[in-house]
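In the current project phase, work has continued on tokenised descriptions of protein folds. One protein thus recorded appears below exactly as we store it.

——
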Amino acid sequence: MRIVPLDEASKQNILADLLKRDPNQYSAYADTVQEIVDTVKKDRDKAVFQYTKQFDKADIDAANIRVTEQEIEEARKEVNPELLAVMKKSMKNIREFHEKQRQYSWFDSKPNGTILGQKVTALERAGVYVPGGKAAYPSSVLMNIIPAEVAGVNRIVMVTPPGRDGKVNPVTLTAAYLAGVTEVYKVGGAQAIAALAFGTESIPRVDKIVGPGNIFVALAKKAVYGHVSIDSIAGPSEILVLADESANPRFVAADLLSQAEHDELASAILVTASRELAEKVSLEAEAFANELSRSEIIKKSLDHYGYILVADSMEEAIAAVNEIAPEHLEIVTKNPFEDMTKIRHAGAIFIGEYSSEPLGDYFAGPNHVLPTNGTARFFSPLSVDDFIKKSSIVFYSKEALKEVHKDIEAFANAEYLTAHANSVKVRFEKEES
């Protein structure tokens, strides 16, 4: 891995480099995606079936687009029992964590005859996108469905591209069933996002779409936003390790490569004030990259977006972390909890040398759907909050309104909104005439 002195110029260059990976930069695909979205909106099922044949080489129609209970049972039998047991343990941790995020309605009643409050309601229908192809990501299935289920969403609709045989990956299907999915449809890509956003004869329209996907999925989510809510426009995975001379360089290197193996656009950065640690981590990373199974992807990722930044001080290093606002942040220092309090921007924070990032991907419980490309400055991880909405409650008795009605009228008249003022005034016109 390249070692770079941390200064203002190198920091700005790296930030600019990282932003090149943002899905919003891939405007060349936007017209293609918009055409798919518009066609599905217009032709509905017909377009979905045609695009599925074109892109996934699968013959899908109204009779087989929805996964049946028999298909789910067959899928469960194909899953390795040991993996099934691990998924159930992971699911328990994820559910317990997200249950602590539940919000409840509240009401505040006062003696003057007013009641103010907030009514919390779960979304009626949520759509979950799950990538297909050769790879299966049951962890993402659990992370996207369980918060919706905990929130109380009535209908959780999953879409995922089928194989050429028209079947869904059995591990993906089993994870969805365990997590509490309501129904699963065999469709992927931008056409699946459009179907969820606008509805077709076979696929119901939903209120919100969540879940990861390729650039076409990301741009489709952006295209339908406003017609439906979305979680975020997710970019490639990233990890930043903040470490001092006390860190184990072998551990640090292993953790950096855990994200570099995702794809060639993944980012892996170490920020430290120790030149000695930087050099040791670089050597360890090179050794790991030569022996791990996804070696080619790891090397390209590190060549493009891998950095070891050497700061003059830990204060400077922490300032750089906050400016980068990483998706995953590991703090491996002598006083990690103290350093954690200085972090303002990060999707998930892993504290200490035995809290490696894959804990969050698979098992610990916090959600692994996290803000990327610096959006941790203003976005949060996927949570139960994403699947609820809030309504404000206002009640005033006649006596309570009478006390303040002239104040309201004065405010409305100051904005030249006389109908607003009249709406309040009319209630007391007989008493005051």
Remarks:
- The first strand starts at residue 3 and ends at 5.
- The chain has a mean pLDDT of 94.
